[in-house]
Amino acid sequence: MQQRQCQDGSAVIRVRIAGGVLLLAHLLLVAWTSLRPRDVLWVTATNLTPFAGIKADLALGPLQAAHQIGEGLLLLAPLGVLLPMVGGRLRVSPLASLVRTVLAGALISLGITLLQTAVPGQVPDVDSLLLNTAGVALAHLAVVPAGRRNLRRRNQREHPEPVLREETAQGRTPTIPRVGMAP
């Protein structure tokens, strides 16, 4: 069993390292696009009403709405795949993995939104937080369960479980009588 863990460990370590490098690169790109100052003549007011920005985008027409909403969904969507890669777990509850990943994505989005309050020209928007979190969830649901299933199958093909001999029963397992405690 120890040897199997070592063999599986090298593949998991490679996936975790690749996930960590890609995660760092993606977060740097997101920080560069979301937190750099913009020179604009005017900015819209901060939106703290959920779905108000999405309704305003939908009023602009289908193409503009698809562009704005898609941009919000896609900004942090790679986190839905990269965060589980960094975790490196092949056998985990799908629901627990989804919840962990979505919560981490929501916290990262919240951190970006809070940092935007200090950047000139950047306006915090609660709808971007909602769309970013939904993008993380959708990417996770679309890729991670199938990816983990394929990795588990590959590991089983490369490192099959050893066949254990079933031992014959040799009677009852001996028990030791309990000794009472002294007063």
The helix content is 55-70%
Strand content: under 5%
Low-confidence stretches: 1-6
Count of spatially separate domains? 1
Give me the Rg, rounded. 25 Å
Shape: elongated
- How many beta-strand runs? 0
Q: Major sheet: size, sense and barrel closure?
A: none
- Mean model confidence by pLDDT: 87
Question: Could you name the key traits of this structure?
Answer:
183 residues, 6 helices, disordered N terminus, single chain, mainly alpha
Structure in words:
- With 183 residues, the protein is mainly α.
- It has one domain.
- Helices cover 66% and strands 0% of the residues.
- It is built from six helices and no strands.
- Helix 5 (94-116) packs antiparallel against helix 6 (126-158).
- The longest helix has 34 residues, at 2-35.
- The chain is elongated and about 85 Å long.
Q: In a nutshell, what does this entry contain?
A:
With 183 residues, this protein is mainly alpha-helical. It contains 6 helices and no strands.
Write the layout of secondary structure elements.
Blueprint: H1 2-35, H2 52-59, H3 62-75, H4 79-87, H5 94-116, H6 126-158
Helix pairs in contact: 1-4, 2-3, 3-6, 4-5, 4-6, 5-6
